[in-house]
Design goal:
heterodimer; A: mainly beta; Jelly Rolls; seven-stranded antiparallel sheet; two-stranded antiparallel ribbon; rod-shaped; B: mainly beta; Dex49a from penicillium minioluteum complex, domain 1; Pectate Lyase C-like; 1 helix
């Protein structure tokens, strides 16, 4: 009996010592330190004010303004259709920015935008503009140019072709041609990669006769 | 008593003492192991911190005044009254604008306040210390409440400390006030970062940048790095396979309020296919924030939005199909999540695992415009909102379908919705102080069609309001021909009370214009 108790006592002492040894050496002490290798700090560049991002700085571009006077400003504009508030009048108001533009009703090609110059006049160039802001992203539009003396019977001046409007190049397309006399000038659109209908912020028609 | 018995008794006592000592030691070792295990998590944790732009101005007391954008500088600033440390390291804190006004302001220039935000990436655990030297700490709440985080509050040192192990957005609310609540965007470690050398990648590195507009083309990825602040907008029209991602910020503070004229939408995707918008933070736009229109197949994942200005809807999907919106944070001064028809029909849209803080208008809204394009056979179908936590709603319904045109709105589910603080009906929200509002109406502001529509098959289940007001709810069609039918409300609990009948839930149900409405 006495011997058995002594054996138990020794065993218990050994267990107690083992538990403490494990607790002391087997378990790392708590610490709130991170391993420095697991920390990344993404540094900010030195700057004292917001900078223009180099990838988005536009090269200087000088708009192409044809010789003569834009006589469309004195005309009247009509269109085959328009969407929301973007009616034909906005295309000849001399303002190419903001919400001053014509846009045809969605998915209603062909779309026409016609300017009645109010009189027969010699013209030699037209300039089609979209808003030059970057938000008017690069797009293509396919259109032809037609002219008419009576507003009913149009003849083709420039055949249907695709043009690129690029905000880095002022979102403008300038077409020059031999001088013709006409009262009505019409654009007929069949495609716009940036909208569901033709769009024109300014439809400028140039004459050397003021 | 014999000699041997005298010896045995002390030995038995010794055995008992030794057994007790072993038990105590085992408990000590177990506790030490638990503490050490959590410390090991921290030791093995990863952390990515992003320095903020050095050009940002320090916010002064003057900058924190609640006033209109015409009266103070509303630019994004470096926060100076709230310090955040993560695992002992300083984390940059931004000071952005929010809006505590609870009514529409016709001048488009409501008073704006400010609030701090911060972000970092981590894996494992993050011990977050928030120090607010000038503020008395009576109470602190860490949302979402379902994490059950009880912060250590050191009132003397104005410090709050808590540990997180899950990447998510955490909001620290002080003294039960929405003012100067801290939003912490604790992201997972970023993987698969695009290369700046990839020709299809538009890469914006750290720093403060002015960019008029980033117009994405087919197949392009815009990456806005953590530490970047872009003053500008990101748009894409008629494109396919476009991605926006990164930890950085798109900030609209430099734009004047849109005044109903010129909205600079920070994330705008019209007529697009296969778009993927991830992770970026959007602050203080001059109108609404993330718009997709006539687009299909979109994923919006993990974006964070704080919009304080008029018409500042958070995520607005207009005539879209097959969209999945998930893991986002939206704090907005107009509808937080909204689906509407401006042209084509909307269908197959899921909002999942999203946190919302609605300062004005509705939290989850379908409508009012359901056929602004006046199309034949208009419909909005198969829309779901699941696992949504509304931290606060201060104004109009949390759950709403407002059919103000002639569309059929059907197969709509609101499931697992937790409203932590219901303050619906504040300010001019008192005109519709409903928790749930299903309504067919004709609106002078929002209707485009003469005819009215229908609402069918709506399931609202597992909705809990944890605190705030016990708001009523409304289900009301237009007339006998334009009705709301087949609505099931299941497992609704308001302020601890299980709602099993309409009266107990303060429901206003128009019997003339509704059919088969049930509550379980």
């Amino acid at each position: 009996m006495k011997k058995a108790l002594r054996v138990i006592l020794i065993l218990l002492v050994l267990v107690l010592i083992s538990v403490h040894v494990y607790g002391f050496f087997g378990i790392k002490d708590a610490s709130i330190e991170m391993n420095p290798e697991n920390l990344i700090v993404v540094e900010a560049p030195d700057q004292t004010e917001a900078m223009e991002h180099p990838d988005f700085i536009k090269e200087e571009y000088v708009p192409v303004i044809p010789e003569g006077t834009n006589i469309a400003l004195e005309g009247k504009a009509t269109a085959s259709s328009f969407t929301q508030v973007y009616n034909a009048r906005r295309a000849i108001d001399g303002v190419a920015v903001g919400v001053s533009y014509w846009e045809a009703a969605p998915n209603s090609y062909p779309n026409t935008l016609t300017v009645d110059l109010q009189r027969k006049a010699p013209i030699h160039a037209i300039r089609i503009c979209l808003n030059p802001a970057s938000i008017w992203a690069k797009r293509t539009q396919t259109f032809s140019v037609k002219i008419s003396d009576d507003g009913e019977n149009f003849e083709e001046l420039i055949p249907m072709q695709q043009y690129t409007f690029d905000p880095d190049r002022n979102n403008e397309v300038v077409l020059e041609f031999d001088t013709v006399e006409t009262q009505f000038v019409q654009l007929e659109f069949t495609e716009n990669s940036g909208a569901t209908g033709g769009q024109v912020a300014e439809f400028e028609i140039y004459s050397k006769e003021s | 008593m014999s000699e041997s018995k005298k010896t045995v008794i002390p030995e038995i006592v010794l055995i008992i003492l030794l057994v007790a000592a072993i038990i105590v030691s085992l408990i000590y070792v177990k506790n030490k192991k638990v503490v050490a295990a959590s410390a090991n998590i921290l030791a093995d944790s990863k952390l990515v911190l992003y320095e903020g732009p050095k050009s940002l101005k320090d916010a002064t007391e003057e900058d924190l005044k609640s006033t209109s954008e015409n009266q103070r500088d509303i630019s994004l600033m470096r926060c100076t009254d709230t310090i955040v440390k993560v695992n002992g390291h300083d984390c940059f804190v931004y000071d952005t604008n929010v809006n505590h006004t609870r009514q529409w302001v016709n001048t488009y220039a409501p008073p704006l306040s400010r609030t701090p935000i911060t972000y970092f990436d981590f894996e494992g655990a993050a011990v977050i210390e928030v120090i607010v030297p000038g503020r008395q700490l009576d109470s602190v709440k860490i949302s979402p409440l379902n994490y059950g985080i009880t912060p250590e509050i050191d009132k003397e040192n104005h410090t709050v400390k808590f540990t997180i192990t899950e990447p998510d957005t955490y909001t620290v609310t002080f003294n039960d006030s929405p003012e100067r609540a801290l939003h912490i965007f604790a992201n997972p470690i970023e993987t698969d970062v695009p290369s700046p050398d990839d020709e299809n990648v538009v890469y914006i590195g750290p720093g403060e940048w002015n960019i008029e507009a980033i117009m994405l083309e087919d197949g392009q990825t815009l990456y806005i790095s953590g530490g970047a602040v872009v003053h500008g907008i990101v748009n894409s029209n008629f494109t396919k396979n476009v991605t926006v991602r990164g930890r950085g910020i798109i900030d609209g503070s430099h734009y004047k309020s849109w005044q109903g004229k010129m909205a600079y939408i920070p994330l705008k995707f019209d007529n697009c296919e296969n778009i993927n918008i991830r992770d970026v933070i959007v602050l203080n736009p001059n109108a609404w924030v993330c718009q997709a229109f006539n687009s299909k197949n979109g994923i919006i994942d993990g974006i964070k939005i704080i919009s304080p200005r008029p018409n500042g809807d958070g995520i607005t999907l207009q005539s879209c199909e097959n969209f999945e919106v998930k893991n986002c944070f939206v704090r907005s001064w107009d509808d937080s999540l909204v689906v509407k028809n401006y042209d084509k029909n909307s269908k197959n849209i899921t909002f999942k695992n999203i946190q919302i803080w609605t300062d004005l208008a509705q939290s989850m809204e379908i409508g009012y415009e359901t056929n602004k394009g006046k199309k034949p056979d208009p419909s909005i179908t198969n829309i779901s909102f699941e696992d949504i936590t509304v931290l606060n709603n201060f104004h109009k319904p949390v759950i709403s379908i407002h059919n103000a045109d002639d569309a059929l709105v059907s197969d709509v589910t609101f499931r697992n919705i937790v409203v932590e603080n219901a303050q619906i009906g504040s300010g001019d929200g008192e005109e519709m102080p409903y928790l749930i509002d299903l309504w067919i109406t004709q609106s002078g502001n929002w209707s485009s069609t003469r005819d009215r529509g229908q609402i069918r098959n709506v399931t609202i289940e597992n909705v809990q309001v944890l605190s705030g007001k016990f708001n009523p709810s409304r289900i009301k069609g237009f007339d006998a021909e334009h009705t709301i039918e087949d609505v099931v409300i299941r497992n609704l609990e308001i302020l601890g009370e299980k709602i099993t009948d309409f009266e107990a839930g303060k429901f206003e149900i128009d019997e003339q214009t509704t059919k088969n409405i049930s509550i379980e």
